[in-house]
Description:
454 residues, mainly beta, 4 domains, 7-stranded antiparallel sheet
Amino acid sequence: xxxxxxxxxxxxxxxxxxxxxxxxxxxxxxxxxxxxxxxxxxxxxxxxxxxxxxxxxxxxxxxxxxxxxxxxxxxxxxxxxxxxxxxxxxxxxxxxxxxxxxxxxxxxxxxxxxxxxxxxxxxxxxxxxxxxxxxxxxxxxxxxxxxxxxxxxxxxxxxxxxxxxxxxxxxxxxxxxxxxxxxxxxxxxxxxxxxxxxxxxxxxxxxxxxxxxxxxxxxxxxxxxxxxxxxxxxxxxxxxxxxxxxxxxxxxxxxxxxxxxxxxxxxxxxxxxxxxxxxxxxxxxxxxxxxxxxxxxxxxxxxxxxxxxxxxxxxxxxxxxxxxxxxxxxxxxxxxxxxxxxxxxxxxxxxxxxxxxxxxxxxxxxxxxxxxxxxxxxxxxxxxxxxxxxxxxxxxxxxxxxxxxxxxxxxxxxxxxxxxxxxxxxxxxxxxxxxxxxxxxxxxxxxxxxxxxx
Length: 454
């Protein structure tokens, strides 16, 4: 009887020891346990399960808590109502999966199929957090050793969770993502005739490195000309090889110390004035007086010197486009043709001189800026060198016509216009139906591509 009692005690003691050991083997841990991200950045935290060599047939996380004013859970499955974390595959059945971004809680449960279990370690689930405000948030399991009403790992109805590892995460201020602002480009207007070099300059609202190109639309990375003075907020460099009667455009882009480069051209525009017309030749010398002597018969009449300049009349703008203008006028005697013009009443620019003498004059000026008011006056000089100026007039260049396919009106046919066309594919939208056949289709796409980036 004593032996039987002792055996029973030993068996009972062994069973009791086995059950205690089974109840205190598994662990749950957050990985990584700490980290730091900027506002609006995301990061992932794994929930790691380790059964320590013992089997488990279910895991119930009830609950995992976080600070919702600092962190928010990013939904892992938009096809399902609510917010979920990313379920792992350690066990085949996800029983419950829900995150509450208002209360700051996560509930998650997985189980094995009937009669099966999981032994080992791995990722039970993955949480993607987004930092929404500067601060710190602990992420903690609700867990009390031995309790079956909070977080647990089970096997055949016995709680085997012995330990949890929580985490703490910090959200910092967002980094600089804004490119510099460019301003005060110099020079502007018209520089004096004879200028062969000048310094172009600009300012930025933060320290930056600036480059330039003579081709519009060149990206910062592709620009090969760096300002000689740059890196702070004032930037300058010398440009050479300038010529009279020429307009110049320098397209500038800058990048700040955080690597944010501007994506639009900042244009520095100016022109060099044409040389002034040469002064008229001096009048011819008067004829010598007749020789002295006895009275002779009446001599012939002497010649006269022309000192009267031509009279300019009927000044007209025959045609004006976005980049050119044709100006005509009449003179009462044969004379040369030239036009003085500019953006102000001081003019500053000249068309090439036509020295052919005519009474009907035609001057074509090209290379003009679009949608600009220009002041001008006609100049004519007769064969005797008498020069005259017509009255001051104005002409206005037109807006450059929009290319077929430039739906957003930015002056280029590019990927944005293609996107607009494709979003109206097979629709009856006359504004995008370039060939007018009643449908936006492959023919309209062909027309758009024929004008690509023009």
